[in-house]
Amino acid sequence: MSSAFAYAPAPESRAVVDIAPSYGLFIDGEFTEAAGGKVFKTVSPANEEVLSEVAQAGSEDVERAVKAARKAFEKWSALPGAERAKYLFRIARLIQERSRELAVLESLDNGKPIRESRDSDLPLVAAHFFYYAGWADKLGHAGYGADPKPLGVAGQVIPWNFPLLMLAWKIAPALACGNTVVLKPAETTPLSALFFADICRQAGLPKGVVNILTGDGSTGAELVAHPDVNKVAFTGSTEVGKAIARTVAGTDKKLTLELGGKAANIVFDDAPIDQAVEGIVNGIFFNQGHVCCAGSRLLVQESVQDELLAALKRRMSTLRVGDPLDKNTDIGAINSAEQLARITELADAGESEGAERWAPSCELPDAGYWFAPTLFTGVTQAHRIAQEEIFGPVLSVLTFRTPEEAVAKANNTPYGLSAGVWTEKGSRILWMANKLRAGIVWSNTFNKFDPASPFGGYKESGFGREGGRHGLEAYLDV
Ligand code: TAP
Prior knowledge:
The chain is an alpha/beta fold. The protein has 16 helices and 22 strands. It has two domains: 14-258 and 458-477, Aldehyde Dehydrogenase, Chain A, domain 1 (3-Layer(aba) Sandwich); 264-443, 3-Layer(aba) Sandwich (Aldehyde Dehydrogenase, Chain A, domain 2), CATH 3.40.309. 39% of the residues lie in helices and 18% in strands.
């Protein structure tokens, strides 16, 4: 199938990153093969090209990495905060210097549009390191006592939707507080974490302070269960989060979980429609909808439903799906065949349960994993597409008449991560923010992130906060 939006490699951009044919694990400051010699391939989801072969860490490697982190902890935690800050500032600057290379790498391995990795992911990654570098010598003023202590070795497991940004959310506060780290990136997106390991070396970070173990879920499970890990930080699915909570239960490990979401983006009849449409599109189609806080349910006030949906469909018809390295692309590739199958299954369930499916005409590339931006109307609260996290470019539309009904519907899922409110009335925004059971409430905007803002959920979206002063608490003995 060919179309104006078909995948066509952009060799110029691709050339800015030099991907080696194989990578080892990063343990104690060195790249090393896995003890068992196992490897796996990482592919570009846009064309299924094998990008590299990466080591699969087993239990012996987890042991080595935790040992290295434990050894490094002694000196790292004893450094004055201002000294740790110097390393973090250096890392932040190196990320900025290498941001073009890292953005292309991230788009290749993940499938996200280069415009997003270049303008959102990478600036935020650097901003997180700058922000937490600033805290490293001010921990005594963070509200956790005059001399708060780090926890020790942090075992961190991250997903594939924002590989480098999730790494930054985990590693920057951990190091600022004086902890050392063993981090496992997701199996489908290991490369940017390995490039980050190289940046740690470039920054002269002491050996063992950051260790990267590539591997699958079994590596993550071994890491979080390791008895010498003091802190577990996980971002990913609610199902795996629950399994990790069971593993950690009964130990003295400190745990934070950042899990799924099913956010409501709530549009009142006094909202500026064009602005709301942009917010809805950004809310659900940013990063192909692979966003835990995605505005995957649109709640629209009945009186403006027709006008809003007509404008939304017109806007969706302009979205370009295709080559992640093309600067004009709005929606890139779905991260993996498994994720595409999940999205397809849930969208099909939406149809079979009676909702009406609509997508703009849009030809998709032959190779790779793709899903057209999709809208469901006539959705009821009981439908699976109104309850389950789809984690793809699929929007479920429900309606409401009163603010009370909007709140009741917004809160009616197992999740509680984020929500959006679109209205001209300031008093209504405040009223809604109080009533919504969501860790983050945006008003007249969506998907806005800042390292100074705490991020985290209620209910099955997890617990603990990342970002801001609150994010320090997860890495301190308070
Ligand atoms: P998960 O399976 O939860 O994977 C997240 C991370 O945990 C990955 O690094 C994964 O490794 C690792 N992992 C898997 N099983 C583990 C275990 N038993 N113990 C410790 N670590 C383990 O998520 P996924 O498969 O990538 O996506 C599944 C669904 O999760 C998605 O459809 C979406 O709904 C949700 N999700 C949510 C988020 C956020 S930010 N809330 C992010 C990603 C996915 P491997 O990648 O190697 O399996």
